Amino acid sequence: MLSDSILTLTTFVPTAGALVVALLPRRGRVIQWWTLAVALATFILSLHLPFHFDYTRHGFQFEENYAWIASPAIRYHLGVDGLSMWLILLTTFLGPLGVLASWKAIESRTKEFYFFFLLQQTAMIGVFVSLDMFLYYGFWELSLVPMAILIAMFGRNRGPQAAIKFFLYTFLTSALFLVAILWLYSKAGTFDFVELQSRLGDGSLALAPKALCWVSLAFLVAFAVKVPVFPLHGWLADVISEAPTAMAMVVAGKLGLYSILRFNLGLFPAQSREFAPWMIALAVIGLLYGAAVALAQTDMKRLVAYAMLSSLSFCTLGIFCFSVSGLNGAVFQTLNEGLTGSALLILVGILYERYGTTDLTQFGGAAAKLPWMATLFVVTTLSLVGLPILNGFVGEFLVLSGSFPVSPGWVAAATIGVILSAAYMLWMVQRIFYGPQSALVAGKAAGDLNFRELVTLWPMAILMLIMGVASPYWIRAIDGAVSSLANSQVNSVTHTVTNAAIPVAEVKQ
Amino acid sequence: MNGPAQVLRILPEVILTITGVLIMLIEPLLAQKSSRKPLGWLAVLGTLAALAASLWQYQLPPGTAYFGVVQTDAFSVFFHVLLCGIVLASLLAVLGSVPDTTENLGELFALIVFGAIGMLLMTSAVELLLVFIGLEISSISTYIMAGFRKKSAKGPESAIKYFLLGSFATAFFLYGIALLFGATGTTRIGDIAAALSTGQVSGLVYIGLAMILVGISFKVSAAPFHVWTPDVYEGAPSPIVGLMSTAPKAAAFAVLLRIAYGALPLLHAHWIPLLWWLAVISMTVGNLGALRQLNVKRMLAYSSIAHAGYLLVAFTALSVDGIAAASFYAVSYAAMNVGIFAVLSQAGGFEDRLTSIQDYRGLAYRSPLLGGVMAFFLISLIGIPFTGGFFGKFYVFSAALHSGMVWLAIIGLVNSGIAAFYYLRVITAVYSKPAATSPVNEVPPASVPLMLTLFLTVVTTLILGIVPGRVLAAAKAGAQTYASVNGNGTTVASR
User: Domain count of chain B?
Assistant: First the structure.
């Protein structure tokens, strides 16, 4: 049956495609078309998941569980729940769009680019489907390599430095993460996530609380770097401004946030709650700091990078308030961020292709020349600042409403960030598209979006709208997965999507 | 096993001896101007036969021969196979990169084969004097090989340095054996363990242990006995370095494993702190030293010091885990190191046309295959999952954690994070645009034997990273040889 092997297929079809890329001739656009076909095939395969997903059932579905290495006991264990399913779909959805966005931007050395691009797809999907800590760690680390190599090869001017910075930030912290995994294995004798979770949960694997605290901290730091959470964001702006668009689209956010949700909250609920006040504080600081720095940027890519830091901090905030609606919001916001952030990066990338610069001060009045471009840019901007009926609003609302009862002070500060986001985004739109035409815009004969670019951007814009008006379709799957995280200490709480969240802090009393 | 059948226990050594002697005999008969490469192919054939013989030895019941001085068991056969594999891959790399006109090429092939005999003996000997003889055979061959490029200034320097420090270290090793003999009245590994388990442990044993450790540490280039490494690696031809940096080390580690777990298991508590520090110092000195290097071969020399440190971590673990992890690490390290030096031999040639990291800029533009393979080995050296380098590290550190060495694991893995920096610098250079006048533009297309080396090492590294089950099982089987020694103080050898 397809359902029995769908996860393996979705994960490894890109790898198989990559191997073919290595053999294809460097002639015409053969490699691009092939990669596009592979990415589309992966997306279509992954569509199997939401259509066959059992929304009434909790726990993992489409599981595959085989012994891989006898000793140490490593299993090839895959599975998805409502949390990972949508993230896989986001990844596979962005795949073909990433190819389209690179169509013209990557002219030379296409074979290397698309080979590593497809490998990156496998690594990211692998992170989401792995339920064995060893396997998970494998994909987690693997996801660094193509990313770093592509940033080094295709960076705009300081690629190698940005690549090394990115790699070291992530690799150094995951070294400690590996120690933590190995330590857990030496105590539990298994890498299996499900088994670890149940044994840690029911107390049959009793470990010293202090040791657990260190272990969960090692997990958290490794994931926080990849989100990134303030103050571990040092690599983000460099990477976003150097990386080719298709890589910048996937570098931040979902991998780290998913891992925090799955592993920190899933394995160490008590420790995560201990860290929660700190994480909420860091999230809000990151939110405001990112917004403030974004306001001061004159380079579009750096502005987008700090805007991403700011809106990703929203997700962190939602996670660590431990209320169902906050968690739902955080996951939904992660999807939004993946979608909207990517659209924004593609748009900026197109501007860069047209005008050869991302310096905001050189732009002005481009709307008259690029009407479609301006339209889509504004839609994306409105999604990012959280206009109702678009997707961003749902996420922000859920996060804010879910976290407010937990720590009203910090959340009140966070709302300032929402206002600031409107300020820097709209100001950017104004500086690029309105006002008097600048010398650059007037001087260059740049055409509006062509067919390929419209095909890339319209699906994203439409999805923003659908996710804004039909959010329950997504939330019902997410809800099933995250409710167990919110309730892992208080099992009696029941809820639905619509009723107001019950913050754990209140229930405990 | 008695009588003439005993020869089966040393069959690979015998085959290699015949091969080496044949090469020496045929070499003078060849015309002055004719190519010596056929001799290399003869060596390849001999090594293949030795490899087959080693694999065949797996079927022999474990036991000793020749008055109990050599022992074939799962442990020695594991290392035999590994060593034959390294020699095979290195011979192909030499054949693929050496110019036909090189002087004394025939002798080089003979030396490689003779060195291999010494190393094989080291791993199967259970009599310390025979270990010493094997060590000398292999060391003397490597001293000469290190100075093989007589005409370049660095060649003789490299050989002399290696020889002086090396003979000093061998003397330490011999002195250690003498002291152990003084304390226990025997030089047989099994008997030493038995003697120590009954009587009072004399102070001489500790001094002997320390001396042996110094001798071995030199051979495996563990800090602080590592100073010769960068100079020797820089001066010797790349394919030879690939051999030198892996095979003698693997053999020396096998000896250390035998002595530590076979002869001195009861002194476990005493040698663990020594090896703990040796491991930490090696990892740290190696990685920090490598950070400052601009020459690729010197960088890899420091990296090999660090890798010796990672391997030493395994010694702090409990017996079965530790031996298995160390054996596995030796295999994975050998595969990636022989591989990357094969890439260097192809890119830089026998004469090292490319030396600094800058020279390697754009290798992937000039030759996507060579650049890609080089990046692959560097990624494996960093320890990225799904490569042998990762699984080796993973296994070593999980063994250490299993015996409670949390700090050692933290220090080790943070070290591997630091190491990522200097490997990455090379990867990014390989994938940057080359300068118009860069020597990288003259890299010739890879020859068939070299492609074979690359294929062998890449496939091995991938197998070790993705489906390591069988190699792990073999390493474990080797480790089991000593499990019973630890249990009751007598050897498993069937006399």
Answer: 1
For chain A, the structural domain boundaries read 274-509
Task: Tell me the per-residue pLDDT of B288-343, one tens digit each, with 9 for 90 and over.
Answer: 999 999 999 999 999 999 999 999 998 888 778 888 999 999 999 999 999 999 99
Output the pLDDT for position B284. 93
- Asked whether the beta carbons of residue A171 and residue B420 sit closer than 8 angstroms, the reply is yes
Which of B364, B384, B410 lies nearest to residue A179, judging by beta carbons?
B410
- The whole domain housing B269 covers 3-488
pLDDT of residue A488: 53
Q: How does strand A61-69 pair with strand A74-80?
A: antiparallel
- Of A313-317, A503-507, B198-202, which range is least confident? A503-507
- pLDDT average, residue stretch A421-440: 87
Report chain A's mean pLDDT, rounded to a whole number: 86
Give contacts of A 148-187 with B, CB under 8 A.
148-149, 152-153, 159-160, 163-164, 167-168, 171-172, 175-176, 178-179, 182-183, 185-186
Torsion, CA A168, CA A173, CA A177, CA A179, rounded to 10: 80
Q: What's the confidence (pLDDT) of residue B109?
A: 94
Tell me the C-alpha distance between A216 and A208, whole Å: 12
**Domain assignment of residue B119, yes or no:** yes
Does A106 or B306 have the greater pLDDT score? Answer: B306
Query: What residues contact residue B204 under an 8 Å CB cut-off, 6+ apart?
Result: B179, B180, B182, B183
Q: Say how far apart CA A391 and CA A402 lie, in whole Å.
A: 17
Distance from CA of A345 to the nearest CA of B (A): 24
A112 → chain B, closest CA residue: B368
DSSP string covering B145-188: HHT--TTSTHHHHHHHHHHHHHHHHHHHHHHHHHHHHHHHS--B
Using CA atoms of B480, B486, B488, B491 in order, give the dihedral in degrees to the nearest 10: 60
Of A11, A4, A2, give the one whose Cα is nearest residue A95.
Answer: A11
B 206-245: CB under 8 A from A: none
Surface-to-core class of residue A245, CB atoms within 10 Å of its CB (0-12 exposed, 13-18 middle, 19+ buried): buried
Below-70 pLDDT ranges, chain B: 1-2, 483-495
B379 close to A145: Cβ distance less than 8 angstroms? yes
Domain-located, residue B341: yes
Contacts of A171 in chain B (CB under 8 A): 382, 417, 420
| Helix (H) / strand (E) containing B305 | helix B296-313
What is the Cβ-side half-sphere exposure of residue B125, based on CA atoms within 13 angstroms? 23
ipTM reported for the complex, 2 dp:
0.85
How far is the CA of B375 from the CAs of A107, B133, B203, B228, B339, in angstroms? Answer: 23, 39, 50, 27, 11
Mean pLDDT of A119-123: 93
Dump pLDDT digits (tens) for A364-417: 888 888 888 889 999 999 998 888 888 888 888 888 888 888 888 888 888 888
For chain A, what is the radius of gyration of the CA atoms?
A: 22
How many beta-carbon contacts under 8 Å exist across A and B? 97
Helices (H) and strands (E) in chain A, counts: 23, 2
Give me the amino acid identity at B134.
G
CA–CA distance, A499 with A475 (Å, rounded to integer):
13
Tokens of B142: 């490597």
Nearest-by-CA chain A residue for B372: A112
Tokens of A90: 């986001």
Phi, then psi, of A423 in degrees rounded to 5: -65, -55
User: Is B475 part of a structural domain of the chain?
Assistant: yes
Nearest to A69 among B428, B431, B472 (CB): B472
The alpha carbon of residue B250 is apart from the nearest alpha carbon of chain A, in Å, by: 23
Cβ(B93)–Cβ(B453) below 8 Å: yes
pLDDT (tens digit per residue) in A245-260:
888 888 888 899 999 9
Q: Does position A499 have pLDDT exceeding 60, yes or no? A: no
